[in-house]
Amino acid sequence: MFYTLGHTGGIFIHQHIVDAFTAQNADRHAKPITGFFALAGLYLYLEKNYTGLEVRDAHLQMAKQTKAFPAITLPDDWGALTVCDVLAAPPGADRDEMIRQWCLAVWDAYADEHRMVITITKQLLNI
Questions:
Q1: pLDDT at site 46
Q2: Are the beta carbons of 127 and 48 closer than 8 angstroms?
Q3: Contact 26, 74 (CB under 8 A)
Q4: The whole model's pTM is what?
Q5: Distance from C-alpha of 117 to C-alpha of 3, rounded to nearest angstrom
Q6: Where are the alpha helices (DSSP H) in the chain?
Q7: Which among 67, 61, 78, 58 has a CA at the least distance from the CA of 12?
Q8: For helices 114-125 and 52-65, what crossing angle results, to 10°?
């Protein structure tokens, strides 16, 4: 968190680690909005090239549209990478790329939820 909160360049990479960590550590007790926002954030980052600031703003916009979000089905496999892999990468470009790879691994773990997350996110954001 210290690394991403102190990251320069105005891209707010911190949002991406929040979404990856939240999705990878979800349990059946999590509120539907929590899992949905984490996956929507990963979708917007990875497939729509949103910056962390844009993802954060999208979360706010979606929350204004509705308070009812679908429950997310948890995956059997959480992805091959974890925050430990991110921390093992040297700070700078290597760590930033590892964050992206971690986000991809988590997003891929939820492949069964992609269609639903993408459809609802597009509807709520008019994209």
A1: 98
A2: yes
A3: yes
A4: 0.91
A5: 29
A6: 2-5, 14-24, 32-48, 52-65, 83-88, 93-109, 114-125
A7: 58
A8: 80
